[in-house]
Amino acid sequence: MMDMCTGSLWKNIFRFSVPLMFSNLLQIFFNLSDVAVAGKFAGPIALGAVGSTSILISLTTGILIGMASGANALTALFIGAHQREREKRCIQNAFFVCLGTGLLVLIAGELLSGPILRLMNTKDELMADALLYFRIYLLGSPALALYNYGNGILSAAGDTKKPLLYLAISGVLNVILNLIFVIIFHLGAMGVALASALSQYVSAILVLRALLGSRDHFRLEFAGFRPDGMILRRLLAIGIPSAVQYSLFAVANLFVQTAVNSFDHVTVEGNSAAANADSIVYDMMAAFYTACTSFIAQNLGAGKKDRIRKVYGITTLYSFGTGLILGLLIFFFRDMFLLLFTSDPDVANAGLARITIMSLSYCVSAFMDNATAGARGLGKAVVPTVIVIMGSVVFRILWIYTVFAYFHTITSLYLLYLCAWTFTAIAANLYFFREYRKL
User: Fold this and answer.
1) What predicted TM-score, i.e. pTM, was given to this entire model?
2) Alpha carbon distance 379, 90 (integer Å)
3) Distance of alpha carbon 79 from alpha carbon 223, whole angstroms
4) Is residue 32 part of a domain?
5) What is the pLDDT of residues 113-159, one digit of tens each?
6) CA atoms of 281 and 322, how far apart (whole Å)
7) Which helix (H) or strand (E) is 408 found in, with range?
8) In terms of CB atoms within 10 Å, which of 48, 57, 337, 397 comes out highest?
9) What single-letter DSSP state applies at residue 160?
């Protein structure tokens, strides 16, 4: 466990974030390995089918991560304030909130996946495999919800190493099962989905075992459990807007994917291959956003206002630097990166357009995402969500129906990310510093 209220913030935030960075990276590795195995061993149709569901997977994952962020922020607040009884009730109530969210995502996804894929203009030749892959992948939603819950509780207490270890184990299992199901049993998209779902249950079991068997004050125990209205309201007040905020990026990208689908299938497949870079960079930067929320919440509970401002500045700098360095690496090694996901030279060439623009833009998103993470640490989630709606949904839709509709080039489509991030970052930072000054 790490004491977030004392000691060097530069050192502690870095120590906290590095394991979480690789933990986040392994979490999206489930879908990444699915795409890689499908593209290499099951052909371009399977690659396009799995890639066509990437936005839907981001949507469902965003909901689960968002609800877990409520548990993370509130638990960190109670830890910082040394309110052990409230901390215990928060951990208990958050378990059922996150599990219930996972079950709702599973049910809703199974019912709506077909209509949504058709609404996205998914190519006819990709539709059957895409629907099969996503429906099987959804079976792991309750497990993914509980893993993110456990990760949130442990991170609130300053332990980011255990989630990394557990996800590493399940990540290796995912790759092995992918290869077995696709190469040996020739299950294609169905095989990679099964591998992901099974691996997610392994990570959930391991993290819950750690919480149930812990002897620390943040252990999970069901003895004496009762629903706590105050705790539940506060969990939902942070979790629901955060879930909406995380998932809104995917909702906005549904319009982007629909626009991509207006081009030929080679462009669609190239976009699917190149978009894997987004997940790698975003999730490594996101480690510092979690650090921002956890450190700010603990120091808010401890009443240390000056450290809150320093936490925000340090995490912004760390996340910006991470996005810049990773973006440049992907830019300079873009040909090698695309070969990881496709052997078709036409598909790889189509993916270059996205990577060239996006790799130089990732770092800008740090100013937007870290501001909203800082606001969650202060217990504020509704207004940041509204800001994200305006900047990352409304703005993108307007761009698609104006700028993109006029030029109708793939370059004009990809440029909307940089413009939307800049607009949202300005508004989010103005709000964060206004709330900070009120402390």
Assistant:
1) 0.81
2) 15
3) 20
4) yes
5) 889 888 877 877 888 888 998 999 999 999 999 999 999 999 888 88
6) 8
7) none
8) 48
9) -
